[in-house]
Specification:
Chain lengths: ~80, ~325
């Protein structure tokens, strides 16, 4: 039983850290929605919009990745 | 008209590899590896006790991968150069690897010209292409089979795995965990982008290069982006506001280093953890980790593109002036027309 509360809290903390991924999900969804609307209205801008959309997605996804790194750091007992 | 039937032999190779993976996965069960954020040491003792006065230098397992990456890049550069020289001597038609490289870099150059303008594209393009190509190889090399899975066994300090001798000095880890006398694996090769040192140093290089391009484009006027005193004494309230916003730009410049470094490191580290956990959980079923590997291929390409693309976009922003100068330039253009 020794140290089990600490372990339990570690998993809880990792789970809580991943809440931040929700925001990234919303962000990615919004940017893809905007890009797709633009593409549907004006198909000529496909290439340009796709590049910028991927850039925007990478920005939002980075937030989720920070959360994931924090969760991993807790899970694997680095900090 | 009789068409010659193409024989699709490649799909049989894939099928055979799947069956081989299934059989081998049944004999040697995949073990969930010890995951560490820092690169593992191959030799416990440091190579040099006090390297350049900075501290001990260890032989970590990202150093062999770095050597492999650089050798690979040099070999590719050599053959591309030879191919292009040969085509320049004969009929100016690039063939083989020279053709591939020319198409690839022409695409990148057009991208640069599209967002930075023809004037500064020549200064920005080498940074963009170098960083992107290097990071692409760094990301993709970690997907080669044998990376992260073949290495030296260290005695574990805490919990470790039991080992089974295979003969000839080789052994494989067993999935059972033992409390004492177990071993952990330190692989020979670990992808270099799974090391924070690599991504952070690349991020620092990129951000410093952005400042250099900015100074080249605008001279010391580039500093007015950070210390914006242009309107401070003319406009009562918003001038001071501009100054504060300029100071915030200074912070955002520093945070670029952090976000560059952690974006690449986080994505790649999450990738290896995902593959390791899925392989360790599923054990004998080898097809799903292969799917995750395919996703990692996609992520690696996208992240290399994003790293290079962001460097390029920030450099293009740094070459363009800020606020009033911009409008003046537009006005001058209008006069010329």
């Amino acid at each position: 039983m020794e140290g089990s509360i600490l372990d339990a809290m570690r998993y809880v903390g990792a789970g809580l850290a991943m809440i931040g991924a929700a925001g990234a999900g919303v962000g990615i969804g919004l940017s893809v929605q905007g890009a797709l609307t633009g593409m549907a209205r004006n198909p000529d801008t496909y290439g340009n919009l796709l590049t910028n959309m991927i850039l925007g997605i990478a920005f939002s996804e980075a937030i989720a990745i920070y959360c994931l790194v924090i969760a991993f750091l807790m899970l694997f007992k680095v900090v | 008209m009789e068409q010659q039937k193409r024989r699709p032999w490649r799909r049989w190779v894939v099928l055979v590899l799947m069956i081989v993976g299934f059989v081998v996965g049944g004999i040697i069960v995949p073990v969930q590896p010890e995951i560490s954020v820092a690169a593992e040491k191959l030799i416990e003792e440091p190579i040099s006790e006090n390297f350049l006065g900075l501290g001990p230098l260890y032989l970590v397992n990202t150093l062999p991968t770095l050597a492999v990456t650089i050798i690979l890049l040099v070999v590719i550069a050599f053959f591309t150069n030879r191919s292009l020289k040969q085509s320049a001597r004969t009929d100016l038609v690039p063939r083989g690897i020279g053709n591939v490289m020319e198409a690839f870099f022409e695409m990148l150059y057009n991208l640069t010209e599209g967002s930075a303008g023809a004037k500064w594209a020549k200064a920005i393009f080498p940074w963009f292409a170098t960083i992107m190509f290097y990071v692409l190889f760094a990301n993709l090399l970690k997907l080669i089979p044998g990376f992260e899975s073949i290495g030296v066994l260290h005695p574990a300090h805490g919990e470790g795995h039991a080992v089974a001798e295979l003969g000839g000095g080789w052994a494989n880890l067993l999935p059972q965990k033992v409390e004492e006398g177990g071993y952990i694996l330190a692989p020979f090769f670990r992808g270099i982008s799974v090391d924070l040192n690599f991504t952070a140093s690349l991020a620092i290089i990129a951000v410093v290069a952005i400042q250099i391009v900015g100074f080249r484009a605008q001279g010391f006027g580039y500093l007015s982006k950070f210390f914006n005193t242009r309107r401070m004494f003319k406009v009562p309230f918003f001038g001071a506001m501009d100054f504060l916003v300029g100071l915030l730009e200074l912070i955002s410049e520093l945070s670029k280093i952090l976000s560059f470094a952690f974006r690449l490191f986080g994505n790649m580290f999450a990738g290896i953890v995902l593959v390791a956990i899925v392989a360790g959980l599923l054990g004998k079923i080898s097809i799903l980790p292969a799917m995750i590997m395919m996703f990692e291929l996609f992520v690696g390409i996208i992240q290399a593109f994003v790293f290079g693309m962001l460097t390029m976009v920030f450099m293009a922003q740094a070459t363009q002036g800020h606020g009033e100068e911009h409008e003046e330039a537009h006005a001058a253009d209008a006069h010329e027309i």
